Give the backbone structure.
Amino acid sequence: MSEKNEQRLEELEEVLQRTLNKVQKLESQKIELPEIKIPDYIPQFNELKEGIARHNLSYTAMQIQTQILELKKSITSLPKKIPIQHYYHFTDRSKGSIIAAMILLITCAFSVGTTITLWKENRKIRENSIKFRMIRQGFPKAARWADTAYYKYPVATERLIDSLDKN
């Protein structure tokens, strides 16, 4: 066992010697740090000193108190509600809006009038369709004659019917 211990001791001494060599080597190396440049702020500080010197910051407590009282008086003198009047009027710039509104109104009126006229016309056409279908169901020969006469001579048939309607 002693041989083993001696052998271990020798190994430990070798490791220790290597470690010491490495430490010495690291100690002998020169550490180079990067150069740090600190900017010169002296001109800016002088400018700040001059700015502070220009302002008189040595107010007395009495002066501050009077300023606070004056501020309170001006606040209390303000009305609770400030009356505001609105003036509505037309200017030269609103001319385009007025013209556009008038065009929209006229277009709307025209559309409503056209819709009512077409609604009445559709009602008449529906009534005539019902009447013609009734005649076709009750008198098929007469309906066939009307269809044939209209398809052979549409213009002459229309004139004939218009002249009969006027009488």
About this structure: The radius of gyration is 56 Å. DSSP finds six helices and no strands in the chain.
